[in-house]
Amino acid sequence: MKKRNFAVWIYFAFLLLPLYWMVNTSFKTNNEILNYMTWFPQNFTVKNYVQIFTSPFWRRGFLNSIAFVSLNVVIVIIAAVPAAYAFSRWDFRGDKHLFFWLLTNRMAPTAAFIVPFFALYSNIGLFDTHLAVALAHALFNLPLAIWILEGFMSGIPRQIDETAFVDGYSFPRFFWKIFRPLISQGIAVAAFFAFLFSWVELLLARTLTSTAAKPITVTLSRSLGAGGWDWGVLAAAGVLTMVPGALVVYFIRNLMAKGFAMGRV
Amino acid sequence: MKNRAWWFLIPSLAVMSLSAFIPLMTVINYAQYTVFPGSAPQFVGMENFVEVFQDSVFIGSLGRQVLFSFEVLLIEIPLGLGIALALPKKGKWVGWSLVLLGVPLLIPWNVVGIIWRVFTRSDLGAVPKIFQWLGYGGYNAASNPGDAWWTVVTMDVWHWTPLVVLLCYAGIQAIPEEFYRAAKIDGASAWAKFRYVTLPKLKHALILAVLLRFMDSFKIYAEPFQLTGGGPGNSTTFLSIYTSRKAIGGFNMGMGAAISIVYFFLVILLSWLLYTIMLNVGGGSSK
Fold first, then answer.
1. At the N or C end, where does chain B have fewer CB atoms within 10 A?
2. Is A58 within the bounds of a domain?
3. In a domain, B21, yes or no
4. d(Cα A111, Cα A108) in Å, to the nearest integer?
C-alpha cells in the first residue's frame, strides 16, 4: 500500500512541476527570469498580470476565444443530439457507413484541412469570423459528440420511447420532457469534450482568423515570435489561459468519475 | 420511420458538409494540379503524389511520426493504467486528484508548448538546472536533437497520460465489488485479480484510450511547434508540422494537398489496423 502511494505522489509531482514553474515565472521580473534561477520569486511582482489586464490586445484575444468556443459547443450539441438519436434508435440504409464516415473525421489531421478551409471560408465571406472557427472545429467535435451521445442513448431502453408515444406524447414533447432529462449527463460530457478540443486547438484557429476574431492562443504564439520576448507577460498569459479549463474541470469533477468511459467503440 | 432518420441527420450533415465534405473534395481536386499563387493551375494528375513519396523530408517525418506515436502509446497506456489502479477508489482527495488530472488536458496546446519551453530553456528553465545538478550539464533542447526528442516525448506524456488515467479510472469505478469478492473467495492472487477481473472489464476503456491517443498523437502540431519549431534541424518535425509548412509556405499548393490526402488515409488505415488488432487480442467480445 505504501509503495503504491509513493508512486502516485511522484506522478503528481511530475504533473505539477511544469505548472509550478510557469506560475513561478509569471510572478518574477524579467531581470530575475533571465539572470537568476530561483525556486521562488525574489521580487514578487504582479506587473505582468496588470499589463495583460490593461491591454485591449490581450483582452480581445480572451473574448474572441470564449466567443467561438461557446458557439462551437452550441452548434455541436444542436446538431449532434438528433443525429445520435437517429443512430441509436433506427436502422436505416447506410447507417453503419455514415457512422464510420463521421468517425473518420475525428481522425482527420487538422493540418490536412487548412488550405481548403482557408479557400472555402474566404470565398463565402466567413474568414476572420467566430462562426468560421466554430464551424471548422465541428470537423472533429461533431463526430465525437455524436459518438458519445449515441453511447448514452443506446443505454436507455427503447420501451421508454414507445410507452411515451402510446401515452399520446408528441415527439417534441416526449423529447423535451422525458428523453432530455435522461441524457443530460451525456450532453454534459459531450459539451465538455467539445469545449475542450475547441479551446485548446491552435492550427485552424490561426489559419481562419487575422484580426477581428483572433483568439488568445494565437495572440500568445504571435507575441512569442515578435521579437519582444517578454517572458514574464508570456508566462502570466499562459497561466490565465489555464483558468477557464481549470474552472470547467472543477465544476464537472463528479461527472468525470462516472461519465468518461461512455461511447461505443 | 426509415426516412425520418434522415431528417434528424440534416443538421449534422449540413455542418459536416461545410467542415469536412467540401474541404475534403477541394483537397482531392487541388492534389491533381500544380497550383502556385498568382498563376493558373495546371493539371498534372498523379504527379504530386509521386513527388510526395520521393521527398526525403516527408519520409523522414513519417518515420518520426510513427516512432513518436508508438513511443508515447507504450509509455502513456501502462503508466495511465497503473496510476488509475493506484488511485484510491474513494476519499476526500479523489475529487481533487481528478481536477488536477484534468488541468493539463484543458490547457491550449500551444500553451503546453510554451510551458515546456519556459520549463526547459537553458537560460530560464528548471530542467537544465536539475540535469546539471544530476551531473548532465549539456542538456539543451534547442540545439541537441536527442534532448529535443525526449523533451517532446516527455511533454506528451505529461500532457496526455491524465486522459488515460481518467478513462481507466472511470472503467475501474464501474466494476462491481462482487467480482473482487468472488475472486477473493476463490483465493485469487493480486495478479490473477488484475488479469482475470480488472483487465477484461477495462478492455472497452483501454481501446478508447489507445485509439484516441493514437489519432491525436499522430496529429500533434502545436506543442512541438511551440517548443522546438520542429528542430533542431528536422529532428522533431512531425507530419503536421511538415504538412502545414508545405501548405502555407507559399509553395505548390497542389503538393500540400497531395500530402494532406496521403496523411489522412494513413491515419485512417493505422487506426483501423490498431482497432482490429485490439479487438482480436484477448478473445474478441468487448461488450
1. C
2. no
3. no
4. 9
| Unique residue bearing C-alpha cell 503536421 | B240
- Report ipTM for this prediction: 0.82
Residue of A75, A107, A245 with shortest CB distance to B268: A107
Per-residue pLDDT of A191-225, as tens digits, reads: 988 998 898 888 888 888 887 888 887 877 666 54
- For residues B88-98, give the mean pLDDT: 79
> Which triple of cell numbers denotes residue A80?
449532434
Give dist(CA B260, CA B220) in Å, integer: 14
Instruction: Evaluate whether residue B36 is within a structural domain.
Output: no
Substitution target from B92, B110, B220 for chain A, most A beta carbons within 10 A: B110
The secondary structure of residue A260, as a DSSP letter, is T
Residue A48 identity: N
Domain of residue A209, CATH code = 1.10.3720.10
pLDDT at A42: 80
Contact A105 B16 (CB under 8 A): yes
- Closest C-alpha to A231, from B152, B115, B148, B131: B115
Q: What's the rounded Cα separation, in Å, for the pair A158 and A144?
A: 23
Percent of chain B predicted with pLDDT > 70:
95
- Could you tell me if residue A111 is inside a domain? yes
Domain boundaries, position A155: 64-259
**How far is Cα B78 from Cα B74, in angstroms, rounded to an integer?**
7
* Partner B, chain A 112-171, Cβ-Cβ below 8 Å: 112-117, 119-120, 135-139, 142, 146
**How many Cβ atoms are within 10 Å of B11's Cβ, its own excluded?**
17
* CA proximity to A85, closest of B5, B2, B16: B5
Tally of domains in chain A: 1
Describe chain A by its helix, strand, coil percentages, rounded to 5: 80, 0, 20
Kindly report the CATH number assigned to the domain that includes residue B187: 1.10.3720.10
Place of cell 461533431: A142
In a domain? residue A45 = no
Distance separating alpha carbons of residues A177 and A184, to the nearest angstrom: 12
Spatial separation of the C-alpha atoms in residues B48 and B33, rounded to whole Å: 8
- Residue B40 within a domain: no
Among B11, B26, B170, select the one facing A260 at the smallest CB separation.
B170
Residue B186 counted as domain residue: yes
DSSP, collapsed to helix, strand or coil, labels residue A255 as helix
Contact B111 A238 (CB under 8 A): yes
Residue in A closest to B249 by C-alpha: A115
Assigned domain for A116 exists: yes
For B71-102, give the DSSP string: HHHHHHHHHHHHHHHHS-SSSHHHHHHHHHHH
Structural domain including B186 reads 57-280
CB A147 within 8 A of CB A263: yes
Number of domains, chain B: 1
